[in-house]
Amino acid sequence: MKKSSLLIISLFLLALIIVSGLLFGQKKIDAKIATGEISANNNFPVVSSSTSPTALHFESLPPDTYQAFYNNTKTVPNIGEIKGAIVPHHLLAGYIPATLFSYLEKQKPSVVVLFGPNHFFKGQGKAVATDLDWQTDFGVVPTDKNIIKKLAEKNVITIDNEAIQTEHALGGEMPFLAKSLPGTKVISFMLRYGTSDEVTNQLAQELKEILPKDAVIVASVDFSHYQTLPSSNFHDELSRAIINNFDFPRIKKLEIDSQPSVNLFLKLMESYGTQKMAYELHNNSANLINNPAVAEGTSYYSPYFVKGEPQKVKIASILNFGDMMLDRSVKKQIDANGGGEYIFKTLAGQEDRFFQGMDIVMANLEGPFANSRRATTKSIAFRFDPALISTLKKYNFSLFNLANNHSLDMSARGFEESKTNLKNANIDFYGQQYTVGDNSLLIKQVGDFKFGFIGLDDTVNKIKISEVKKLMDKTKTNGADFVVVNVHWGEEYKEISNTRQRQLGHSLIDLGADVIIGHHPHVVEEMEIYKNRPIYYSLGNFVFDQYFSVPTQQGLGVGLVFEEKNGQKSISNYVFPLEGIKSQVRQMKYTPAMKYFADWTTKSRLGSFKFNNFNLIINF
Description:
The structure is a single chain. By secondary structure, the protein is of the alpha/beta class. It contains 19 helices and 28 strands. The radius of gyration is 26 Å and the shape is elongated.
């Protein structure tokens, strides 16, 4: 039988097992876990597991399926001795761990340290280990009981064989060890979600002191969960860079299934001086089953580390939205449906993961968080309840443009109250309704770059380029690496920009803007790439109550990844078509999203640039 046919059959069998596990799996796992890590798309199924006085037996896939993984391994160049690697435990991508362990056959390490997440929150310790051997269909993987005992005596692990026996992040990997490294001992443990840096640092120190010199470290970690393929790719750009940069403070931003495991892994690589990423594999379940419409997929990233220094890449990741209004009928929907989470929870998805995996989330705040409603002569005047700010914080909103025609709806005093309320929540902002001045500019460090954020309103008073130039000059004197301009402009309900917008957009790029994010028309307008810089003329409504038409209930989310590598700068653009149903936002389903996106790109002016799966990269 051909290798490709065997793989297809194996993947089909895996899909059947996953569905069976979903329908007939463990019913007693508590609700928190059931709505968290356990998912047909994101976890390896537990068919059965058992313990004996001497061994754990995690029965997973049949041997033929593991053999199919080996038949489809990738050819790794001779990169020397691997000290550590990350592999997935979602074994739809079983060829990835098979590739690693095949390479390790020539190293023959005496010990492999294998760890991953504690999916089911079992056991009492932060790091829960076993002192039993693992029984697999390819033979026994012996546990190094001496090292386990020493680690337990130092109180850095807790031995709990019953808790660990169903952990697929460990059990699913053991057949690879047994097949490729017979006789190699293993130290296996799982790390509870939220394990502190203090605990992982201590564990890394004790492991470094006690492990033999030839030990290999393997972290069993899956990457983006419950996401569409474009969302996963957007999140993974930051994850891959943070790992390869050894950027420990930003690990907590990553949309992965075990931040503590990655933290421990990188600490160990740092301690051994093996920080050079010499080889990597990256994939997604949507690709593996050849179905880009998968709504809740899993991504996989597997870097190999060898002796050497990290090859750092500068990176920052920003998720952008259009007009957000939290008053009027939106407020009625919030009140009728239990609070502000109603607006965002569908878009956020399981574990709120859509709003993770980037440095900041920003939008145009179409109104003030004033402390009270004030009488006004305006026919349409918004006021948002400051209590909703905590909801925005939950979904990682951290930056707002205030330059729009509704900032001062509750008077200048209400505007100041709004800024104070945002500041007290550690949310940054810039811009105002009538003028262009110092408060139109925010210099802010985001990730590895210093940004100049400029907010402009062209709907009340027309923008004067001479005033904007002064702000641009300040971004340069303050050392900004990139300039992002949010501009409120255009005509309401027009789906194509007008001459004024285009002329102004070009002028802003000429002055030094790197990205322009437009809003105000309440519908999506086209995109243009001008002098290698993107202009989004209008992202449309993000959260609004204009239920009277389809276009006013559609919008775009735009993920921007700014990168500099070897002196080359780039902006990776991800576009997410959105729709609102009674002000509850969600991503469009794949088929309508593809049609909507095709129509949008047709009317856009992209020159020679082309999107690939909702992604477009601009180098400059």
